[in-house]
Amino acid sequence: MPLEEINVTTTQVAFGLRRPVAIAAPDDGTNRLFIVEKRGTVRVYHPDTGLAQNPIIDITASVDESGNERGLLAIALAPDFARSHVLYLAYTALPDGAVTLARYRLDEARLEPLLSQAHAEYDNHNGGQLIFGTDGYLYWSIGDGGGAGDPFDTGQRLDTLLGKILRVDVSRKCGSLAYCIPSDNPFVGRAGARGEIWMYGGRNPWRFSIDRADGSMWIGDVGQGRWEEIDHVKAGRQAGANLGWSCYEGLEVFDQAQCRSGVEYTKPVFTYSPYTGGCAVVGGLVYRGEQYADLVGGTYIATDYCSSAAWALREDGRGGYLKAEIGEMPTQVTAFGATPKGEFYVVNDLPGGLHRVSFERAAPTCRIKLTTRAWGTGMTVDLTITNTGTAPIDGWRLVFPLALGQTVISDWNTDLTQGSNVVTATNAAYNGTIAPGRSVTMGYLASHTGDASPPSRFTLNRDTCAIDT
């Protein structure tokens, strides 16, 4: 199904959660969901009986919840959870906010800290995602230590766990460690490097996921202020991958002093500017369920904490990605979760709810035809906007991104503004109404620094448009 013909919808199924931040789904036949609350509790939701009042886990006595981004941040169920009742938690610990990984034995209500990273200077950028990979190892993300601009230059350092995605074996102990470091981790044995590191160069990879179908990793890394990014790192290319921070923010150099010659940086597959209303990307999941497989099978879904835009990404089979905005999520979504059968849920921060995610086919109500002419350092783009819906459009607002290095110089038949790489074009006084089946034209002149590619996605009054090129 073309992405522009997909619409996401959500249905709230539970109320009264206190700042929920993560979801886990035991594959034990109970149909339960475990919902993590930032304060240090985990509550159970069942579709038949709703949200249990009393928490199944309470580690509030161990959790530092000070600051907006500290608290109990993530949960991962052991692969043998149905038998062992063992799970793993990531949280900022009292008394100093150290980012901590711990084992929790549900039947004993026992918390066992395993690994800790000091994080005292700032209370933001704690990361926190926990996932068991298809290899049985536990993956854990930690932010760069907080503040702004990577003040400790941790993103590109290998002597700290800050700004990293780690890979550890929690099924056994090795020497003085309460876990083992897999021998094939990329920096094992390197002088001055932490062997737990799997990938580095993250700013605050708050939510990442592993696609069980192919082992690839999708990472939503929260940006500094100009670019939010999503990385897709294939299996076989993950060990030692450098996500770029703080040399890069998105595709743009952020701090030249942190850039190194001879280093291969992993480029994001999707970036967007906060000028769209966003503030923090919330990485999601690849849909592998059955109910909506014909619509979004194999499609990655993510959102943004502030804009609530729902993003869909799918490989195009030619080395690139199809991308579209497919509607809105609830306000302030913090995490996605999936049932053992692959159906999606999300939780939102305030007012604190659990929502079931659905997808439907919705024919696009607009179509864009592009004509581009480029030369030297300049280009023109002519756009024809067609109303393919059944109702008149009375006043329009077309939003689209430009390639990096493009700057609009002038425009026609529209009132156009550019913020960062985001263009917002609104109707002129004389072409604001578009009857069903009718079109209006507009265009712009832009300079470029080598990339003269035309815009790849458009929304008209927040509806995604189909594109004719």
Description:
There is one protein chain. With 469 residues, the protein is an all-beta fold. It has two domains: 3-361, TolB, C-terminal domain (Neuraminidase, 6 Propeller); 366-468, Immunoglobulin-like (Sandwich), CATH 2.60.40.290. Strands 2, 3, 4, 5 and 6 form a five-stranded antiparallel sheet that branches. The protein has a five-stranded mixed sheet with strand order 32-36-29-28-39, with no helix packed on it. The protein is globular, with a radius of gyration of 23 Å. The protein starts with 5 loop residues before the first strand and ends with a strand.
CATH architecture of the largest domain: 6 Propeller
Computed over alpha carbons, the radius of gyration is: 23 Å
Enter the CATH topology name of the largest domain: Neuraminidase
Helical percentage: under 10%
What is the CATH domain class of the largest domain? Mainly Beta
Give the total of beta strands. 39
In terms of quaternary structure, the protein is: single chain
Please summarize the sheet with the most strands: 5 strands, antiparallel
Residue share in β-strands: 35-45%
Please count the helical segments.
2
Mean pLDDT over the residues: 97
Structural class: mainly beta
**How many domains is the backbone divided into?**
2
Q: Are there runs of 5+ residues with pLDDT below 50, and where?
A: none
Supply the CATH superfamily name of the largest domain. TolB, C-terminal domain
Separation, N- and C-terminal Cα atoms: 19 Å
Principal-axes shape call: globular
Domain CBM2: 359-468
Protein name: PQQ-dependent sugar dehydrogenase
InterPro entries: 6-blade_b-propeller_TolB-like, CBD2, CBM2/CBM3_carb-bd_dom_sf, CBM2_carb-bd_dom_sf, Glc/Sorbosone_DH, Quinoprot_gluc/sorb_DH_b-prop
